[in-house]
Sequence to fold (133 residues):
Amino acid sequence: MTEEQATVFVVDDDLSVRRGLARLLRSDGYRVETFASAREFLERANLQGSGCLVVDVRMPGENGLDLQQALAAAGHATPVIFITGHGDVSVALRAMTAGAVDFLTKPFDDSALLEAVRQALTRARRASASDSA
Fold:
């Protein structure tokens, strides 16, 4: 599996953020699917392949931490990268303790996000390889 075969799922309630992230990630060669909420992602995303998740921490309804917890409870090891406009140390600690790949505060450098995605997809490939073994 290559990074190009993996999907980067973007979950953010802000349409302009979703569009900007999708454009950035596609320009770097990634397949991207976007979702406006955690609920929409859980209802529509196909997690059968490999990929990673870029998710906003604060969203109406279920937040990014809720989504991370729901994925773990369902047995999905999809790596998560959190983005937020509200840097909160306790939230970042919770996210990282639960296995997040990174926690980026908006506005973040594009290269920092792309590096986090590369790390997340490497983690996803390793998990997939160990599941296959």
Remarks:
- The first helix runs from residue 15 to 27.
- The CA atoms of residues 25 and 114 lie 7 Å apart.
